[in-house]
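Possible race condition, two jobs.
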Amino acid sequence: GYESKSEDTLEQYTLASSKNHSTLEDELFEIINTYRASIGLNEMEFESTTYYYATLHTDYMISKGNTSHDNFTQRAENISKRTGAVFVAENVARNYDTIEEAFEAWLESPGHRVNIEGEYNYSAISINQNSNGDLYFTQLFFR
């Protein structure tokens, strides 16, 4: 099986983190920030290290055919090492046809909502599709 490694080479890291995030990812990020602003919270800033790890995890979930928080502790530690993050959280989803549906589902779930409304300054969202076109989502948050 796939294990994420903390010994990524700088070259791999640079390539992956500079991958252009998609319009869908940007739009969902904006929806979440607009929601946060509407309830008096700060808007979060996109952060590329977090995007790298979110993308790795989205691809991992696609390879497994299911959502999970597998290897979260390792992801959080790696993000912390590279950014100085003191607290990291994660939301995942799949099988939503639109980003709006995924957002609504996260809001209706207390555990996911806590993260969206949490005291975070930085975030990134990775959205990718499997060979059937099903969307998989990972959002990482940190402060």
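Job #2 (started ~2 s after job #1):
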Amino acid sequence: NDNLLSLDRITFQNILKRVALFSNRTTFQVVLNVQAGQLKVSTQDLDFANEAYESVPAEFEGSDLEMGFNARFLIEMLGVLEGKEVELKLSSPSSAGLLLPKNQESGEEITMLVMPVMIS
């Protein structure tokens, strides 16, 4: 996974919760658009003409990338992680992402796999 996004866990979770309110009720799709220094989270529900987006400063190493994910999965995953910051390792829109705490305690290794969804 060549691209590394780092940001505050609670901030990321809260953005996803707010944006997901406007997502499609079947797919809960959100799009993560990551660029140097910024994460933009957006969604669109064409059936009800809803859309939302929110941007936040974030550390990002790698090439600009746009990927779709199920917001409910990301929110649940962030809810069970501990620590202030998380890292999301991404490679391509068709490859799984890895979500993990930025600072892990010694003797503990937590890595969560999250599959992307096709952006519609």
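The mean pLDDT is 94.
Logs attached separately.
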